Model the fold of this input.
Amino acid sequence: MCGRYATTRSEADLSLLFDATSVAEAPGPSWNVAPTDPVPLVRMSQRHDGRVLDTARWGLVPPWADDPRAGARMINARAETVATSRAFASSFQRRRCLVPADGWFEWVRDGRSKRAFYLTPRDSSVLAFAGIWTMWREQLLTCSVLTTAALGELAEVHDRMPLILPRERWPQWLAGGGDAPALLEPMSPAELAAIEVRPVRPDVGNVRNNGPHLLTAPEPVTAAEVTLF
Done:
């Protein structure tokens, strides 16, 4: 996973889709989420006795970090090591979350240039990335998205992908504890087949660009224009 995704559903829609109570102002739709951006997540809350829709900064900041900028390097946690990593293990056991998304972006090198692709459900349903969260110094909620080895057609675009959880796995994931291998199972072949790989405009590579136009098919460009990306 290259560190960009889209999440555009409203606060009301996400609350309904995830059966969660909103407890923070939603960051608003983004077609080009980048590291350290504010993002919506769903987690369990003892205070609210159930699921809450919250807002966190993307990039988990470990408790021992002196500077929250350390989170920029920790936007992803590998499924293979998340249960034993010093930075992630505690959150994996006790502070798991769902990160709502419409789809994510990957880039494929083609000679000197790169081609951008958007991976998204064919039926436009919401994706739930497996995530973990923590509170840095009791003032900053941060999160990471788990990644796993890409399978099937998706592996032709990138060797990693987000760990995506179908709805029936949400309760177990959010509950905390549990058996790590079962929690970290990859998508089934049928679930993988439901993901479309779509070429999109190269200007998604610039974090300053945002809007639904980024999800449209790329226009013909010259080789010189593409290598600028």
About this structure: Residues 11-17 form the longest helix (7 residues). The radius of gyration is 17 Å.
